[in-house]
Structure formats: structure tokens, C-alpha cells
Write a sequence for this structure.
């Protein structure tokens, strides 16, 4: 997944057309999917050949995890079309994939608070998903211990903007310098006319992401 983040950063720094950019993203995504499939097949074959029950079980667990991570990558793939995307449905798919791959074994619950249907342009919705995925990773890495916790994602409409609030109830360590991942996500959100603000409260980290809306269900008819 980091390969995709780095590629998005490279595509921002390299002057290419939108068509070339999209083609390169599709090619990168295709390669990553093939790499996942190749590794999963190799592990599954070794599990099938092993005479040890314990080894087969361990290798099967690894293959399952890789399939779940592949589902996360698929959920974060750049949309093929240009039609506006319903944000909550998109985030439901993403959160389901992320929960299965990264959170369940750590006792971390991902709570998506649904709103009335809101739409974002395809590129904006995709970049919102990338930012949320990075925020979830940061919470898992920095906020929670063995007891786990809750990451809450809430959508709302504020005039012409769709706002997404991502917060956790983990340990607040106060303000710390933003890492490369957060800086990249802030840049991606700003590149499509959005805002990205991080902070730390008494109960953990909180991030507000706002992007220009593409309307509601009624606006599209």
C-alpha cells in the first residue's frame, strides 16, 4: 500500500497529463494486484504440500491476511469513471476491508456514522479514502495498546462542503510533528480543493477533512 502512496506523490511532482496519470495509476494498481495474487498462490501451494498441521495452519493464516490486504488495496484503487460517488457507500466498503485486515485481531472497532447520501467527484472521494486509510493506520500505530479502542468516522454536510471527522479514543500524546504520510494526505486533499486539519484532544486524535460536495441524491436528478 505504501507503494501506491509513493506513486501518488510522484505523480503530483511529475508534469504529466490527466490521461497519462490515470493510465500510470491503473498500471501500478494492476501490478500490485498481480503481486498479491502471486504471493498468495505461492503460500497456499506450500501450505498444501506441508506435512505439518501447524505449518499448514500458519501458512493459511498468512494467505488469508494477504487476501484481506488485497481487498484493502482494491477498495483504494482509483475509480475508473468520472461519475460522482456516494461517499458513505464507498467508505462502508473501505472500512469493512480495513477492519478485516488490520483491526479485528487488535480489538480495535471502526465505527462509521452514516449520514444522508452525499456525493463527491470520483477523484475527491478516492483521495478522501486514501486519507482516511492513513489516519486509521496512524491510530493503530500510535493510539492503542493491547486493550484496543474505537476509531470513529462521521460524515456531515456543511453548506457546499462534505466534512469527514475521524477521531479515536486512544492515548493522546499531545501535538507531534506530522509524518510523511500525513503531509502527503494533506497535500492530496488540498489538491482537490479540500482542507485537512489535525488536532489532539483529551480523549485522543481528531482530524477534520472537508471537500467540495457534488450534491445530494436530489441534486443529481
Amino acid at each position: 500500500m505504501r507503494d501506491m502512496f509513493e506513486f501518488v506523490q510522484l505523480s503530483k511532482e511529475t508534469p504529466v497529463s490527466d490521461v497519462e496519470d490515470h493510465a500510470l495509476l491503473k498500471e501500478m494498481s494492476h501490478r500490485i494486484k498481480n503481486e498479491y495474487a502471486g504471493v498468495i498462490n505461492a503460500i497456499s501451494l506450500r501450505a498444501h504440500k506441508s506435512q505439518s498441521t501447524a505449518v499448514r495452519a500458519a501458512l493459511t493464516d498468512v494467505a488469508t491476511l494477504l487476501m484481506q490486504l488485497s481487498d484493502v488495496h482494491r477498495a483504494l484503487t482509483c475509480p475508473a469513471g468520472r461519475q460522482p460517488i456516494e461517499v458513505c457507500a464507498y467508505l462502508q466498503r473501505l472500512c469493512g476491508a480495513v477492519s478485516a485486515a488490520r483491526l479485528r485481531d487488535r480489538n480495535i472497532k471502526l465505527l462509521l456514522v452514516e449520514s444522508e447520501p452525499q456525493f463527491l467527484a470520483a477523484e475527491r472521494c478516492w483521495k478522501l479514502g486514501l486519507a482516511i486509510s492513513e489516519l486509521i493506520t496512524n491510530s493503530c500505530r500510535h493510539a492503542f495498546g493491547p486493550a484496543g479502542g474505537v476509531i470513529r468516522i462521521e460524515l456531515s454536510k456543511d453548506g457546499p462542503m462534505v466534512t469527514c471527522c475521524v477521531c479515536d479514543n486512544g492515548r493522546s500524546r499531545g501535538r507531534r510533528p506530522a509524518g510523511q504520510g500525513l503531509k502527503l494526505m494533506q497535500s492530496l486533499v488540498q489538491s482537490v480543493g479540500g482542507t485537512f486539519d489535525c488536532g489532539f484532544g483529551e480523549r485522543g486524535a481528531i482530524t477534520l477533512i472537508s471537500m467540495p460536495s457534488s450534491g445530494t441524491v436530489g441534486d443529481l436528478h
Observations:
- Confidence is low (pLDDT under 50) at residues 216-221.
